[in-house]
């Protein structure tokens, strides 16, 4: 690569980062509906054409937001996961740090929800376009399960991270609807859900429960197919 | 009431029914997005002004659709509920007849979902505006529980119908995403969920599970608050 090519790429990357940062700031401050490519271009100090060159649509910028949120989620979860081997505590870490990343967006959450809820939407968390962001969360859940000392039957481990991702999305859905101060009701739901999980986990080894539970997990994990 | 008042009311009611029927047909054939007040008025043979007099917005007509679907749900469930006292079988009846009513709308389900998913949307199934339709389903679930021979602790019975409504809505959400032929994956999810419920119901009496399970149900039932 010639030196001028490196410079060009660097300049292009810098422009891209400027646009991305302006978009993420706008999503946080204005929400989804009021954010437009025109405003982002203006605030990044570039033309609409340049913005479109880097990001074909507003929804491509939502994917950048998803990536930022999920990377922050992983970075927050990892050091805490290093502090315990208990499976339920580890899952609690992942769910709690996930909710914490969402907090600044609660005001605008209904807008993001409307825009992303259709299975046909590119910003749906289960869409092909959201794969990179989704894979980060699934990997965090996989680590949480793999690094735990637990007595779950081996056959559960494969489908569990996908099922946990869905649980995380359902918890986020509950959080969107949660009008209590600081969304403390969602925190309580999580605490109590984890408490129930703690006492009921040993039951996954009980023969009559094991087969139907596993079948259920398999179907839930297929939701994206 | 004078005879002319009765006539006027009857004429007005007939016009209202014409508009309502045209709207419901349009939702079924065109979906949510492509249905407009203008088209409905045209097909009902009345003016846009007359349509607006009876229904202030398209979303008021979605409420009529919800009512029709839920009344059909109740009518389909009731005779089947008369055939069994088994709690899990009775819940199966309510979930299955509920899904059956949705079947004709699967093609357009993503549109209805996008329009109704925001907690701020009047057509959200948990909104104040949807209370009449929602109450019909909750009452069917209440009947299903109350008419069953089961050994569930008494304290569960109060919150159960609301929790079952949420389960029904989540099942419908899974169904919207289900691209399998005839949405057979949703039917399988339901079958296996019911099978798991059947074997795990007796556990609700186990002391260590009972308190956290009940607390969880209480929070879930509060989702609308």
List the helices and strands and how they pair.
The structure is a homodimer of 225-residue chains.
Chain A: H1 3-30, H2 37-44, H3 48-54, H4 58-81, H5 87-102, H6 109-116, H7 131-146, H8 154-177, H9 184-200, H10 207-221
Keywords:
homodimer; 225 residues; mainly alpha; 10 helices; elongated
Describe this structure in words.
Two copies of one chain form a homodimer. By secondary structure, chain A is mostly helical. Chain A has ten helices and no strands. Chain A has helices at 3-30, 37-44, 48-54, 58-81, 87-102, 109-116, 131-146, 154-177, 184-200, 207-221. The longest helix of chain A has 28 residues, at 3-30. The N and C termini of chain A lie far apart (41 Å). The model of chain A has no long low-confidence stretch (mean pLDDT 92). Chain A binds chain B through residues 110-111, 113-115, 117-121, 126, 170, 174, 176-177, 179, 185, 188-189, 192-193, 195-196, 199-200, 203, 208-209, 212-213, 215-216, 219-220, 222-223, 225, and chain B through 110-111, 113-115, 117-121, 126, 170, 174, 176-177, 179, 185, 188-189, 192-193, 195-196, 199-200, 203, 208-209, 212-213, 215-216, 219-220, 222-223, 225.
